[in-house]
UniProtKB/TrEMBL annotation:
It holds the Pfam family MarR_2. PROSITE patterns: HTH_MARR_1 (PS01117), HTH_MARR_2 (PS50995). This is MarR family transcriptional regulator. Keywords: DNA-binding, Transcription, Transcription regulation. Residues 14-147 form the HTH marR-type domain. GO terms for biological process: response to stress. One of its GO terms (molecular function) is DNA binding. InterPro entries: HTH_MarR-typ, MarR/SlyA-like, Tscrpt_reg_MarR-type_CS, WH-like_DNA-bd_sf, WH_DNA-bd_sf.
Length: 150
């Protein structure tokens, strides 16, 4: 047990940094989820709507699945409640009628416009102990880590 204790307690800098990012990310996501929950909204569903909006309001389900990190099979299940609530709808792809596209509805756009400003304020409040220069440096470092995919 002593060897294991040393192994888990005395982390190399890379590992310590990794777990600091994991813990911080979990805390930030928790803050955001608290906001969504207080409004009776599911944060994962908002993420889907945001990704559709970022794509210009319409997207193929397979592309959406990649962007949010789920399988093509799971994306269908995730889209059902959003369609039932009227936030999205499915349309034929104009270039290939065999494919379906997901379209952000007027209701989905209205929801995002109603809730995103408050969520962005929650995030900004949590990040306020970093000035603009530190935020730019952090973003730069995170992008370097993202670029080093193997």
């Amino acid at each position: 047990m002593d060897v294991l204790q040393r192994y888990v307690s005395q982390q190399p800098l890379e590992v310590e940094t990794f777990f600091a990012m994991v813990d911080t990310t979990a805390e930030l996501i928790g803050n955001s989820e608290k906001y969504w929950s207080s409004r009776g909204i599911n944060g994962a569903r908002i993420r889907i709507l945001v990704e559709i909006a970022k794509a210009g309001g319409t997207i193929l389900p397979s592309v959406l699945a990649v962007r949010i990190g789920v399988t093509k099979a799971n994306i269908s299940v995730l889209l059902v409640p959003l369609e039932q609530q009227g936030y999205i709808r499915s349309i034929s792809d104009p270039k290939d009628g065999r494919k379906r596209r997901i379209l952000l509805s007027d209701e989905g756009e209205k929801l995002l416009l109603d809730v995103l400003p408050g969520n962005r304020a929650v995030i900004a409040k949590r990040m306020e102990n970093l000035d603009a220069d530190k935020l730019k440096l952090l973003l730069s470092l995170l992008r370097k880590l993202q670029a080093r995919k193997e």
